[in-house]
Amino acid sequence: MIYFDNAATTTPKPESVLRGMERGFHVYGANPGRSGHDMAIKTAKQVFECREMLADFFHAKDVSNVVFTQNCTQALNESIKGVLRQGDHVIISCLEHNSVLRPVHKLSLEGKITYSIAKVFENDDERTLRSYESLIRSNTKLIIATHGSNVCGLVLPIQKIGELAHSHGILFLVDAAQSAGVLPIDMQRMNIDFLCMPGHKSLYGPSGTGVLITDHGETLDTIMEGGTGSSSTEYTQPEFMPDKLESGTVNVFGIIGLKEGLRYVRQKSLPVIYKHEMQIASYIYTQLSRMPGVLLYTGPLKMGRNLPVIAFNIRGLDSEETTEQLNQMGYALRGGYHCAPLAHEYMGTLEIGAARLSIGAFNTIEQAKRFCMDIKKLLKKTISIEFAGMCDRIILDMCNFV
Question: How many CB atoms within 10 Å of residue 114?
Fold first, then answer.
């Protein structure tokens, strides 16, 4: 199986991640922050080292601003529901994942907030910025932007959006689900107040890991309370970070794996990873663009403008038929709607969805070449089936005429 579904989760993971997690089960099996014995202290040290690495990698102001979550969705919900108050207004982009759209929409249905959707313009940052700016109101509390679309790979100008938000005194949240570990992110330079990401995608950690980094944690309302290992005699949740937002035992073995995944990314370096992935994606895009019968939904891929993600369809097939045919040929892609109806509305694919191909660090140009050859075979097969169907219809019409 050739795996081209890295936007959902990366696989394989680096060997160092597997070894680190295995060692964790043997050596770091205690509960961090809950006991004073040696194993608990050693385990807590592993968790802190990962927190420290994340703070450094994404330029957080303080290591205590790094919060471990179950996934990016939890991080987004904690930020959105924690910061918004009655009467607030929110602006999101037309490419947002349901992890942003659904909590915002739910708060709107409850009558707590209102929200507007800014249009993104491919290769035109200024029009995108004007779209955001035109929606700002006196009660706009939060602007949200995905760093890159999980469906079509378009990259938003988050530094410019962050500058716009802060110039109006508005908080800025970035969904880095697709970009963390691919594109450089500097929270201070980009004016990011809330940075949310999964550990299991391009940071190459295991599933069940996510991260929220924010300088505003102490101002958030909590969506969950419980044991933190601190202030245990108090009936109320601690107000200090990260304990305020980390109730219950964290995923120690997942965090150890995430630490090794992040170490792998740092050692290879973002420029090397991104260039490698984009070379493969660009090769595939170029080949597909030359094939009659293949529908593409963005322009040619460009460094800094796109992630190594391609949304496409084969004429005559819906997206899930395409990915099932490719599955039978030995490829893992995702069809359908990718939990992002806004993006499909943007691309005009709400009727049939889209097949999505997404590249990871372990994919190769040889896999790309084989894929393009097999797409040609699939196109020939589809044309043959369509031709046979057309002949059947002609014969049937002739019989009905007689």
Answer: 15
